[in-house]
Amino acid sequence: NSTNTLADICKMADARTREMKRILVVGLACLDIINTVDRYPREDEDTRALSQRWQKGGNAANTAVVLTQTLDTSCELLCSLNTGIEGQYVKEDLQKRGVLIENCPVNKNCGFPTSCVLINSVCGSRTIIHARNNLPELELTDFDKLDLSLYSWIHFEGRRNVDEIIKMIKKVRDFGREQKLQIKISVEFEKKRPEFEPLFKVEADVIFIGKDFAQFSGFTTPEETVNGLSTQVHSTSVLICPWGERGAVARGCDKEICSSPAYPPERVVDTLGAGDTFIAGVIFCLNRGRLIKDAIQFGCQLAGKKCGIQGFDGLK
Ligand code: ADP
Ligand code: FRU
């Protein structure tokens, strides 16, 4: 019920999630080089950072770490890695945190996606400059290696390899029907790209729409977004739209709208990966059969807590 606190739900996680099947997250892992500053710099300025650190990043990798490390869920990540220093750093970091990565392809002779991030410690804003650095995207052949009977939920980060993601989703749906297994599917759309259009129509149980995507589509609120996009998605998809300090709104396939406020910490210090944390919290709850309203509330509580700390380590 909706009166459960964050602490209650975290406790439930310990006992029951271990016996459940894995959650699989498919998408990007990258390196984040993070400079924390006490004000946003002027153009062409030579300035000093308060601190500088490497951190594993990428929406899928961040979501997988929160599911594993914070919520004690058995979670596998399928992402491309490489043999270079950055890829090996990210691989070791994921392993250290208990994320299962045994099926990730490791590419040779290519770069690794890297973001240079400025975090303003006064307001917690994060400014990201991302470069893909020619690491190959995942293909269906990578997905074919998986034993789909191991998973109860598969989350896909919407990326450039739309055709391949569509084939992966079709494979999960066909497998589920043949084996009479209920594998839930979610898809995230963070930024608007024309090539995403066919991915919108897939038979997903849950679709996450990022604020950037929504604003680029001309929507000004999360309510407008979920209502406006509802005719464009499969009739059984639940639409969920997180929106920074405004919290999040969801629209069930029964057309019912529910919302959650944001839960700001005492001081917002680092919002990098707030959306990825929200998604982890929502998937965690829905995978356990909780109501959509409770799931988005928990997602906002968890993401709010994340905004109050640097990185993801103190989140538990
Ligand atoms: P992204 O990291 O993708 O930009 P959002 O900014 O939409 O994600 O935030 C995702 C969720 O994180 C929001 O729904 C909200 O619950 C929480 N959140 C983000 N920024 C804040 C903030 N400044 N204060 C409190 N909660 C926040
Ligand atoms: C946060 C994040 C960062 C990464 C960037 C990629 O949501 O995943 O870790 O640098 O977005 O767009």
How are the SSEs ordered, and which strands pair?
Elements: H1 6-17, E1 22-26, E2 30-37, E3 51-57, H2 59-70, E4 75-78, E5 81-82, H3 85-96, E6 106-107, E7 114-120, E8 126-131, H4 140-143, E9 151-157, H5 162-179, E10 184-189, H6 197-200, E11 206-209, H7 211-216, H8 222-229, E12 238-242, E13 248-251, E14 257-260, H9 274-287, H10 292-307
Helix pairs in contact: 2-9, 9-10
The protein binds adenosine-5'-diphosphate (ADP) and beta-D-fructofuranose.
Low-confidence stretches: none
Widest sheet: strand order?
4-1-9-10-11-12-13-14
Nearest-angstrom radius of gyration? 19 Å
Q: What molecules are bound to this protein?
A: adenosine-5'-diphosphate, beta-D-fructofuranose
If you average the pLDDT, what whole number results?
94
Structural class: alpha/beta
Helix count equals: 10
Please give the share of residues in helix: 25-40%
Number of strands: 14
Rounded to the nearest angstrom, the distance between the terminal CA atoms is 21 Å
Descriptive overview:
The chain has 316 residues and is an alpha/beta fold. The protein is 34% helix and 22% strand. The protein is built from ten helices and 14 strands. The strands form three sheets. The protein has an eight-stranded mixed sheet with strand order 4-1-9-10-11-12-13-14, sandwiched between helices. Strands 3-2-7-8 form a four-stranded mixed sheet. It is globular. The structure holds adenosine-5'-diphosphate and beta-D-fructofuranose. Beta-D-fructofuranose (FRU) binds at residues 30, 32, 57-59, 62, 115, 128, 130, 272-273, 275-276.
